[in-house]
Design brief:
The chain is built from six helices and no strands. It has 103 residues and is an all-alpha fold. InterPro entries: SMc04008-like_domain, SMc04008-like_sf.
């Protein structure tokens, strides 16, 4: 790995940490379903990608461990404190977004 590659990796890691901080501390009110509707990914997707990246490097990680890295607390705790029941409007928007991106 060259010094430039290392620096790029450090910058990417810092940006990822900032995204997590934003989602955990500044915008825990933004629901995962809204992220899925508007961005096509959510905190759970991030935790899956995190776990997959760890496994590609030979690090075994459970789904719960990866989610705790993304949520900053155990998923059950975050869910109890922040997750609301999806509204009919959110569910309809999610279904529409899924149809649009499938085909």
């Amino acid at each position: 790995m060259t010094e430039t590659d290392f620096e790029t990796t450090q910058i990417e890691a810092a940006a990822f940490r900032r995204l997590l901080q934003h989602l955990m501390q500044e915008r825990p009110d933004v629901q995962n379903i809204d992220l899925m509707i508007h961005a096509g990914f959510c905190r759970n997707c991030l935790s899956d990608w995190y776990r997959e990246a760890a496994e590609q490097r030979g690090i075994t990680m459970t789904k719960d461990e990866a989610r705790e890295q993304v949520y900053g607390v155990p998923f059950a705790q975050w869910k109890a404190e922040h997750q609301k029941e999806a509204t009919p409007e959110q569910l309809a928007a999610f279904e529409a977004a899924q149809r649009q991106h499938r085909g």
